[in-house]
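Journal club side-thread
Mid-discussion, someone asked how the predicted structure for our own chain would compare to the paper's figures. Pasting it here so we can look after the session.
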Amino acid sequence: MIGHIIAVGCGGFVGSILRFGVNCVAARVSLLTGFPLATLTVNVIGSFLFGFFFEYFLIKEGVFPKNLDLFLFVGLLGGFTTFSSFSRDTHHLFIEGEAFVAFLNILLNFVLCIGAIFLGHLIGGAVK
């Protein structure tokens, strides 16, 4: 059990740092456009990586060790993606009277993230 906690914690640590890095870069563009690009970026990348790693490790290798599952999916990608930030950004846009941008944010996050997970799945299966 302690190994599982360490796997999740280490993955979350790495994922959160990576998210912070993406946020720092994308925040500059967000300031220019008013669109929450940082959140969309990490959600799309995280969805792609989920699909890729799931297909690559589980399907191709036939085995997915529990600690790797916890590190990668619960920790790293859980710390990297930001659904709570997506919710906060969308709420803020509605409060500010930017309903069109809020709905665009919802649409792009759902469509691109679901598309990214399928793309990652396809590429993960083609790599090996």
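Post-session note: The mean pLDDT is 89.
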